[in-house]
Amino acid sequence: MSEKKRRAGSDAAGPASSSKRPRASSAASYAESLRSKLRPDASILASLRSLASASSSKSRTAAKSLAEQDPSDPASSYIVVADQDSTSVTSRINRLVLAAARSILSGRGFSFAVPSRAASNQVYLPNLDRIVLLRRESARPFSSVATARKATVTARVLSLVHAVLRRGIHVTKRDLFYTDVKLFGDQSQSDAVLDDVSCMLGCTRSSLHVVASEKGVVVGRLVFADDGDRIDCTRMGVGGKAIPPNIDRVSGIESDALFILLVEKDAAFMRLAEDRFYNRFPCIILTAKGQPDVATRLFLRRLKVELKLPVLALVDSDPYGLKILSVYMCGSKNMSYDSANLTTPDIKWLGVRPSDLDKYRVPEQCRLPMTDHDIKVGKELLEEDFVKQNEGWVKELETMLRTRQKAEIQALSSFGFQYLTEVYLPLKLQQEDWI
User: Fold this and answer.
1) Which of 30, 78, 124, 178 is labelled catalytic?
2) Is the pLDDT of residue 377 over 70?
C-alpha cells in the first residue's frame, strides 16, 4: 500500500487503534466526527477520474496479455471454451452422435470422452490470475454399470440442447430438468452434465442456449439495449434492472460512470439505489444478491471490457464475502473451464474489511463471533494461491482470524441508516482506501 494510503488510513483510524473495544456512545461520537474529514465532492471526483483513466490504460494492456496467454488449440495444456453460434454447436453435436452411432454399429457400443472437472484437475495460474481446467479426459461408456446412467443423461442433454438450438430459442436450466425428471432425478445432476457438455463441445454454456433464471440486478449510470429495448438504469428505482440471463441480447452499452461498485448483498444495494449514490459519485452499481451467478459474472466482465472502468467491491467482513469476491475475480472451480469469459481480474476490495471494524469503531454489539466453520474457511482461504498473491488480503484475513470477529455491511447502520452512503463510502473513496 502506498504511503498516501497509509496516511489516509491512519487519519481515519485515530485512537481506535488502541486495544480497547469501542463503546457505543464513543463510537457514535467518533463516527459523526468523520464527516468533518470529508473534502468537497469535487475533490473526490477528481481522484476518481484519475483512477478511471489509469484503469482504462491498464485494461488495454491486460487485454493484449490475456490474448497472448490463452491458447485455444488442442495441443494446449488446458481447456479454453469460446462463444459459438448455433450452427457451429449443432454441427459439433451431430459429429458426436454420428461417432457414437458408428461405434454402436461396429459392435463396440458407445462412450463419451468427457473432460475431467475434478478439483484435482483445476489449477490457479498466476500469470492469468484465474483458475483454469487442465486438458484431461475420462471415458463415460454406456457399457459400464458405473457410468451407464451418466452416459444416458449425457446423451439426453445433448439431444435437448440440439432441439433448443434448432428452434432458435432459449430455455432455463429448470426447464431442461423438467423435460425428463425421472431420468435426471435431481436438477444438480442435469446442471453438472450441462457443464460437461460445454466442455465436450468447447463452447460457453450460454452458447447452448440454456440459461439460469434472473438473479442479479444493476442500477446507476448505465444505458444499454436489452433485446432492442433501450434501458436507462438511472430510472429503474430502488429495485434496479434485472441482469438479462442471456447476455447475447445486451448491446449498445453506454455510460458516463467513473467506476463500477460491486455489492455482495441486496440490502446494501437497495440503500445505495434509494440514496441515488450513483448521482453523487457517478458509478454503476450491481449485485448478484449473494453467491454470484453466471449471468452477473458475464455482465460484469462485459462492462469491464467495454467501458474499461475500475471495479470496487463492497462485501461483508467475513470469509464468505472474500470467497464471493474471489469467484468474480479468478473464477469458481465448478466452471473453471469457462474462467476466461467469467472472470474480472483486478477488482479492488473497498470494504468492509476486518481492519475497518476498529478503524471506524464499529460497536461490539454489531460484531459477530466467528464460528468454527468460519475459522476453517478463513484458514483455507489463506492457503489459496490467489490469496497469497495479494499481501493486503493476507493481512486482512490474518486480522479476521486473530480477532475472530466478523461483521456485515449493515453493521454500519448502527451509526445511521445512511451512514454507508453519506460517510463510509465517500471517505473510502477520498482516501483511496482499497486493496
Assistant:
1) 178
2) yes
Cell digits of residue 366? 454489531
Residue 22 has pLDDT above 80, yes or no: no
| pLDDT given for residue 10 in this prediction | 42
- Is residue 320 part of the annotated active site? The answer reads no
- The 10s digit of each residue's pLDDT in 259-269 is 999 999 999 99
Neighbours of 163 (CB within 10 A): 12
301 versus 64: the higher-pLDDT residue is 301
The pairs formed by 160-165 with CB atoms below 8 angstroms and a separation of 24 or more are 161/89, 161/93, 161/194, 161/197, 161/208, 161/209, 161/210, 162/90, 162/93, 162/94, 164/208, 164/209, 164/210, 165/86, 165/89, 165/90, 165/93, 165/208, 165/209
The pLDDT of residue 32: 76
Mean pLDDT to the nearest integer, 26-33: 76
pLDDT in tens, 170-223: 999 999 999 999 999 999 999 999 999 999 999 998 899 998 878 999 999 999
Instruction: Print the SS3 string covering the chain.
Output: CCHHHHHHHHHHHHHHHCCCCCCHHHHHHHHHHHHHHCCCHHHHHHHHHHHHHHHHHHHHHHHHHHHHHCCCCCCCCEECCECCCHHHHHHHHHHHHHHHHHHHHCCCCCEEEEECCCHHHEEEECCCCEEEEECCEEEEECCCCCCHHHHHHHHHHHHHHHHHHHHCCCEEHHHHHHCCHHHHCCHHHHHHHHHHHHHHHCECHHHHCEECCCCCEEEECCEEEECCEEEEHHHCCCCCEECCCCHHHEEEEECCCCEEEEECCHHHHHHHHHCCHHHHCCEEEEECCCCCCHHHHHHHHHHHHHHCCCEEEECCECHHHHHHHHHHHHCCHHHHHHHHHHCCCCEEEEECCHHHHHHCCCCHHHCEECCHHHHHHHHHHHCCHHHHCCHHHHHHHHHHHHHCEEECHHHHHHHCCCHHHHHHHHHHHHHCCCC
Q: Is the pLDDT of residue 5 over 80?
A: no
pLDDT at 129 (0 to 100): 85
More confident of the two residues 395 and 70? 395
